[in-house]
Amino acid sequence: MSTCSLLWNTLQLCIYPGKDTTAALISETDDEEWYSSPSIPNVKICNVPFSEGGYGQVFHCKVYNVKFDWVAKQVHIRRDLHWHQFDRSAVEREVSVLERLNHPNIVKCYGCEFLDSVANIYLSFGGVSDLVTWSDSRRSYDSKARIHVMRQVVSAIEYLHSSSVVHGDIKLDNILITPRTDVVTLVDFGGCREVHRPVRLPVQRGTITYMAPELIRDASKAPAFASDMWSLGISYFAMCFKIFPFKFASVEDALYRKQLRRDSELRDIQSMLNEDDDQTHVLAGEMSVMNNVLKVHPMRRISARAAMHCLDEAD
Fold first, then answer.
1. What is the spatial distance between Cα 234 and Cα 211, in angstroms, rounded to a whole number?
2. Sign of CA dihedral 236, 150, 123, 61
3. Which three-class secondary structure state does DSSP give residue 50?
Protein backbone atom coordinates (compact mmCIF):
# COMPACT_ATOMS: atom_id res chain seq x y z
CA MET A 1 0.00 0.00 0.00
CA SER A 2 1.39 3.44 -0.89
CA THR A 3 2.14 6.04 1.76
CA CYS A 4 -0.53 8.28 0.27
CA SER A 5 -3.07 5.45 0.62
CA LEU A 6 -2.04 4.98 4.25
CA LEU A 7 -2.74 8.65 4.92
CA TRP A 8 -6.13 8.47 3.19
CA ASN A 9 -7.07 5.44 5.30
CA THR A 10 -6.00 7.36 8.39
CA LEU A 11 -8.20 10.28 7.39
CA GLN A 12 -11.15 7.97 6.80
CA LEU A 13 -10.79 6.38 10.22
CA CYS A 14 -10.11 9.43 12.37
CA ILE A 15 -12.22 12.03 10.58
CA TYR A 16 -15.32 10.30 9.25
CA PRO A 17 -15.64 6.88 10.86
CA GLY A 18 -18.43 4.97 9.18
CA LYS A 19 -19.40 7.86 6.87
CA ASP A 20 -19.02 8.57 3.17
CA THR A 21 -15.89 10.71 3.04
CA THR A 22 -16.80 12.06 -0.39
CA ALA A 23 -19.86 13.75 1.05
CA ALA A 24 -17.97 16.02 3.41
CA LEU A 25 -15.02 18.07 2.23
CA ILE A 26 -13.34 21.11 3.67
CA SER A 27 -15.57 24.09 3.05
CA GLU A 28 -14.21 26.47 0.47
CA THR A 29 -12.84 29.75 1.75
CA ASP A 30 -11.74 33.00 0.16
CA ASP A 31 -8.65 33.04 2.34
CA GLU A 32 -5.78 33.03 -0.15
CA GLU A 33 -3.30 31.92 2.51
CA TRP A 34 -4.63 28.35 2.36
CA TYR A 35 -4.71 25.85 -0.48
CA SER A 36 -6.11 22.32 -0.76
CA SER A 37 -3.76 19.35 -0.74
CA PRO A 38 -3.31 18.23 -4.37
CA SER A 39 -3.93 14.56 -3.58
CA ILE A 40 -5.48 14.30 -0.10
CA PRO A 41 -9.13 15.40 0.35
CA ASN A 42 -10.15 17.32 3.49
CA VAL A 43 -6.71 18.83 4.06
CA LYS A 44 -5.74 22.46 3.50
CA ILE A 45 -2.20 23.79 3.88
CA CYS A 46 -1.15 27.32 4.76
CA ASN A 47 0.93 29.11 2.12
CA VAL A 48 3.17 30.71 4.74
CA PRO A 49 5.60 28.48 6.69
CA PHE A 50 5.88 29.02 10.43
CA SER A 51 9.18 27.15 10.76
CA GLU A 52 12.05 26.14 8.51
CA GLY A 53 15.48 24.56 8.65
CA GLY A 54 17.90 22.36 6.77
CA TYR A 55 15.17 19.71 6.42
CA GLY A 56 12.73 22.04 4.63
CA GLN A 57 9.72 24.01 5.87
CA VAL A 58 6.75 23.39 8.18
CA PHE A 59 3.23 24.68 7.45
CA HIS A 60 0.03 24.73 9.51
CA CYS A 61 -2.80 22.52 8.21
CA LYS A 62 -6.58 22.55 8.43
CA VAL A 63 -8.24 19.14 8.50
CA TYR A 64 -12.01 18.99 8.34
CA ASN A 65 -13.72 17.92 11.59
CA VAL A 66 -10.45 17.24 13.42
CA LYS A 67 -10.08 19.01 16.76
CA PHE A 68 -6.31 18.66 17.15
CA ASP A 69 -3.79 20.57 15.04
CA TRP A 70 -1.77 19.15 12.17
CA VAL A 71 1.29 20.47 10.37
CA ALA A 72 2.84 19.59 7.02
CA LYS A 73 6.60 19.14 6.98
CA GLN A 74 7.58 19.84 3.38
CA VAL A 75 10.80 18.24 2.18
CA HIS A 76 12.24 18.98 -1.26
CA ILE A 77 13.43 15.82 -2.98
CA ARG A 78 16.55 16.16 -5.12
CA ARG A 79 16.00 15.79 -8.85
CA ASP A 80 19.31 14.06 -9.54
CA LEU A 81 18.58 10.35 -10.09
CA HIS A 82 21.21 9.14 -7.64
CA TRP A 83 20.00 11.43 -4.87
CA HIS A 84 16.32 11.26 -5.77
CA GLN A 85 16.06 7.61 -4.77
CA PHE A 86 17.92 8.15 -1.50
CA ASP A 87 15.95 11.20 -0.47
CA ARG A 88 12.64 9.51 -1.16
CA SER A 89 13.72 6.44 0.78
CA ALA A 90 14.85 8.69 3.66
CA VAL A 91 11.41 10.30 3.80
CA GLU A 92 9.74 6.90 3.62
CA ARG A 93 11.99 5.67 6.45
CA GLU A 94 11.09 8.66 8.64
CA VAL A 95 7.37 8.12 8.03
CA SER A 96 7.62 4.36 8.56
CA VAL A 97 9.41 4.80 11.90
CA LEU A 98 7.03 7.49 13.18
CA GLU A 99 3.90 5.57 12.20
CA ARG A 100 4.82 2.67 14.49
CA LEU A 101 5.77 4.85 17.47
CA ASN A 102 3.26 5.83 20.15
CA HIS A 103 4.55 8.03 22.96
CA PRO A 104 3.06 11.23 24.42
CA ASN A 105 6.34 13.11 23.96
CA ILE A 106 7.07 12.03 20.38
CA VAL A 107 5.52 13.72 17.36
CA LYS A 108 2.77 11.68 15.70
CA CYS A 109 2.76 11.00 11.97
CA TYR A 110 -0.47 10.68 9.98
CA GLY A 111 1.15 9.85 6.64
CA CYS A 112 2.87 11.38 3.65
CA GLU A 113 2.26 12.34 0.04
CA PHE A 114 4.81 12.71 -2.76
CA LEU A 115 4.22 15.50 -5.27
CA ASP A 116 6.86 15.48 -7.98
CA SER A 117 9.93 16.94 -6.22
CA VAL A 118 8.21 17.62 -2.87
CA ALA A 119 7.10 15.38 -0.03
CA ASN A 120 4.50 16.50 2.51
CA ILE A 121 4.78 14.67 5.83
CA TYR A 122 1.66 15.21 7.96
CA LEU A 123 2.44 15.47 11.68
CA SER A 124 0.87 16.48 14.96
CA PHE A 125 1.50 20.05 16.09
CA GLY A 126 4.07 19.92 18.89
CA GLY A 127 3.98 23.52 20.10
CA VAL A 128 4.86 27.08 19.15
CA SER A 129 8.19 27.19 20.98
CA ASP A 130 11.28 25.03 21.45
CA LEU A 131 13.74 24.43 24.27
CA VAL A 132 16.14 27.03 22.86
CA THR A 133 13.58 29.73 23.66
CA TRP A 134 12.47 28.04 26.89
CA SER A 135 16.10 27.88 28.09
CA ASP A 136 16.27 31.68 27.85
CA SER A 137 13.19 32.10 30.02
CA ARG A 138 13.03 32.46 33.79
CA ARG A 139 11.31 29.05 33.97
CA SER A 140 14.58 27.33 33.07
CA TYR A 141 16.10 28.53 36.36
CA ASP A 142 13.47 26.58 38.29
CA SER A 143 15.02 23.17 38.94
CA LYS A 144 11.62 21.48 39.33
CA ALA A 145 10.39 22.83 36.00
CA ARG A 146 13.66 21.89 34.34
CA ILE A 147 13.58 18.32 35.67
CA HIS A 148 9.91 18.03 34.65
CA VAL A 149 10.89 18.96 31.09
CA MET A 150 13.97 16.76 30.97
CA ARG A 151 12.10 13.74 32.34
CA GLN A 152 9.80 13.91 29.34
CA VAL A 153 12.75 14.14 26.95
CA VAL A 154 14.53 11.20 28.58
CA SER A 155 11.28 9.20 28.61
CA ALA A 156 10.92 9.76 24.86
CA ILE A 157 14.53 8.70 24.24
CA GLU A 158 14.17 5.63 26.45
CA TYR A 159 11.06 4.63 24.48
CA LEU A 160 12.86 5.16 21.17
CA HIS A 161 15.83 3.05 22.21
CA SER A 162 13.59 0.29 23.56
CA SER A 163 11.91 0.33 20.12
CA SER A 164 15.34 -0.07 18.43
CA VAL A 165 15.21 3.47 17.02
CA VAL A 166 18.03 6.04 17.11
CA HIS A 167 16.91 9.66 16.72
CA GLY A 168 20.23 10.92 15.36
CA ASP A 169 19.73 14.67 15.90
CA ILE A 170 18.71 15.38 19.48
CA LYS A 171 19.10 19.08 20.27
CA LEU A 172 17.18 21.90 21.95
CA ASP A 173 15.81 23.04 18.57
CA ASN A 174 14.19 19.63 17.98
CA ILE A 175 12.33 19.58 21.29
CA LEU A 176 9.13 21.61 21.14
CA ILE A 177 7.28 22.78 24.23
CA THR A 178 3.75 23.93 24.95
CA PRO A 179 3.53 27.09 27.12
CA ARG A 180 1.97 26.87 30.58
CA THR A 181 1.86 23.06 30.67
CA ASP A 182 5.56 22.55 29.80
CA VAL A 183 4.64 19.45 27.78
CA VAL A 184 7.43 18.64 25.32
CA THR A 185 7.45 16.90 21.95
CA LEU A 186 10.51 15.39 20.28
CA VAL A 187 10.44 16.16 16.54
CA ASP A 188 12.51 15.99 13.32
CA PHE A 189 13.20 12.33 12.69
CA GLY A 190 14.89 12.98 9.36
CA GLY A 191 18.14 11.48 10.63
CA CYS A 192 16.61 8.54 12.51
CA ARG A 193 17.57 4.94 11.91
CA GLU A 194 16.43 1.52 13.03
CA VAL A 195 19.39 -0.35 14.51
CA HIS A 196 18.47 -3.65 12.86
CA ARG A 197 18.35 -2.03 9.40
CA PRO A 198 21.70 -0.74 8.16
CA VAL A 199 21.33 2.52 6.24
CA ARG A 200 24.03 4.10 4.10
CA LEU A 201 24.08 7.82 4.83
CA PRO A 202 25.70 9.80 2.00
CA VAL A 203 26.39 12.85 4.14
CA GLN A 204 27.02 13.33 7.84
CA ARG A 205 23.72 13.83 9.62
CA GLY A 206 23.06 15.72 12.81
CA THR A 207 24.20 19.06 14.21
CA ILE A 208 27.92 19.47 14.87
CA THR A 209 27.43 21.32 18.18
CA TYR A 210 25.57 18.34 19.61
CA MET A 211 27.36 15.57 17.71
CA ALA A 212 29.16 12.78 19.58
CA PRO A 213 32.97 12.59 19.23
CA GLU A 214 32.92 9.20 17.48
CA LEU A 215 30.68 10.60 14.73
CA ILE A 216 32.91 13.62 14.24
CA ARG A 217 36.03 11.48 13.99
CA ASP A 218 34.47 9.07 11.51
CA ALA A 219 31.76 10.46 9.21
CA SER A 220 30.97 6.94 7.99
CA LYS A 221 29.73 5.91 11.44
CA ALA A 222 25.97 5.72 11.87
CA PRO A 223 24.32 7.35 14.91
CA ALA A 224 23.74 4.95 17.81
CA PHE A 225 22.06 4.90 21.22
CA ALA A 226 25.26 6.21 22.82
CA SER A 227 25.49 9.16 20.41
CA ASP A 228 21.89 10.08 21.26
CA MET A 229 22.89 10.15 24.94
CA TRP A 230 25.85 12.44 24.22
CA SER A 231 23.51 14.85 22.40
CA LEU A 232 21.14 14.71 25.36
CA GLY A 233 24.01 15.70 27.67
CA ILE A 234 24.98 18.66 25.46
CA SER A 235 21.34 19.76 25.36
CA TYR A 236 20.94 19.50 29.15
CA PHE A 237 24.18 21.37 29.76
CA ALA A 238 23.18 24.20 27.41
CA MET A 239 19.75 24.38 29.02
CA CYS A 240 21.23 24.63 32.52
CA PHE A 241 24.24 26.88 31.96
CA LYS A 242 23.26 28.82 28.80
CA ILE A 243 26.55 27.89 27.12
CA PHE A 244 27.96 24.81 25.41
CA PRO A 245 30.61 22.76 27.28
CA PHE A 246 33.02 22.83 24.31
CA LYS A 247 34.17 25.69 22.13
CA PHE A 248 34.96 25.11 18.50
CA ALA A 249 34.66 26.76 15.12
CA SER A 250 34.46 23.68 12.91
CA VAL A 251 35.09 19.95 12.83
CA GLU A 252 38.71 20.67 11.98
CA ASP A 253 39.18 22.97 14.95
CA ALA A 254 42.32 21.71 16.75
CA LEU A 255 41.06 22.82 20.16
CA TYR A 256 37.87 20.83 19.76
CA ARG A 257 39.77 17.74 18.65
CA LYS A 258 42.03 18.09 21.68
CA GLN A 259 39.06 18.37 24.02
CA LEU A 260 37.48 15.26 22.53
CA ARG A 261 40.51 13.14 23.46
CA ARG A 262 39.48 13.12 27.08
CA ASP A 263 36.30 13.03 29.12
CA SER A 264 34.78 16.40 29.85
CA GLU A 265 35.50 17.67 33.36
CA LEU A 266 32.03 18.95 34.13
CA ARG A 267 32.73 19.35 37.82
CA ASP A 268 35.43 21.90 37.02
CA ILE A 269 33.07 23.73 34.68
CA GLN A 270 30.38 23.70 37.33
CA SER A 271 32.79 25.14 39.92
CA MET A 272 33.66 27.95 37.53
CA LEU A 273 30.01 28.75 36.84
CA ASN A 274 29.05 28.58 40.50
CA GLU A 275 31.11 31.70 41.10
CA ASP A 276 28.05 33.44 39.66
CA ASP A 277 25.09 33.24 42.06
CA ASP A 278 22.71 32.87 39.10
CA GLN A 279 24.23 29.50 38.23
CA THR A 280 23.83 27.75 41.62
CA HIS A 281 20.40 26.38 40.63
CA VAL A 282 21.76 23.18 39.07
CA LEU A 283 21.12 20.15 41.29
CA ALA A 284 23.59 17.35 41.95
CA GLY A 285 21.32 14.81 40.25
CA GLU A 286 21.25 16.93 37.11
CA MET A 287 25.04 17.16 37.09
CA SER A 288 25.12 13.39 37.53
CA VAL A 289 23.20 12.96 34.28
CA MET A 290 25.56 15.30 32.42
CA ASN A 291 28.69 13.77 33.93
CA ASN A 292 27.60 10.28 32.98
CA VAL A 293 26.52 10.89 29.38
CA LEU A 294 29.28 13.31 28.34
CA LYS A 295 31.92 10.61 28.18
CA VAL A 296 34.21 10.47 25.17
CA HIS A 297 34.09 6.66 25.03
CA PRO A 298 30.57 5.58 23.98
CA MET A 299 30.65 2.48 26.19
CA ARG A 300 31.06 4.64 29.29
CA ARG A 301 27.85 6.60 28.73
CA ILE A 302 24.81 5.62 30.75
CA SER A 303 21.51 4.61 29.15
CA ALA A 304 18.33 6.67 29.05
CA ARG A 305 16.86 4.47 31.78
CA ALA A 306 19.84 5.15 34.05
CA ALA A 307 19.54 8.87 33.28
CA MET A 308 15.92 8.74 34.41
CA HIS A 309 17.01 7.21 37.72
CA CYS A 310 19.41 10.14 38.22
CA LEU A 311 16.57 12.60 37.61
CA ASP A 312 14.32 10.71 40.06
CA GLU A 313 17.00 11.13 42.74
CA ALA A 314 17.45 14.80 41.88
CA ASP A 315 13.80 15.69 42.38
1. 9
2. negative
3. coil
- At residue 265, the pLDDT reads 52
Where is 127: in which H helix or E strand?
A: none
Instruction: State residue 267's pLDDT score.
Output: 53
DSSP conformation letters of 97-123: HHHT---TTB--EEEEEEETTEEEEEE
DSSP assignment, residue 166?
E
Question: Strand 51-53 relative to strand 34-36: parallel, antiparallel, unpaired?
Answer: unpaired
Asked whether the beta carbons of 291 and 266 are under 8 A apart, the reply is: yes
In the chain, where are the structural domains located? 3-124, 129-314
- Catalytic machinery residues: 169
Quick one: which of 246, 242, 243, 229 has its CA closest to 292? 229
Question: What is the pTM assigned to this prediction?
Answer: 0.82
- What does CATH list as the number for 3-124? 3.30.200.20
CATH superfamily of the 129-314 domain = Transferase(Phosphotransferase) domain 1 (1.10.510.10)
Q: Can you give the pLDDT at residue 238?
A: 92
Pairing of strands 165-166, 70-76: unpaired
Pairing of the two strands 56-63 and 70-76: antiparallel
Biggest alpha carbon distance in the chain?
A: 67
Query: Residue 167: what pLDDT?
Result: 95
Closest CA to 211 of 240, 179, 248: 248
Residue ranges of the chain whose pLDDT lies below 70: 1-32, 78-86, 198-205, 247-280
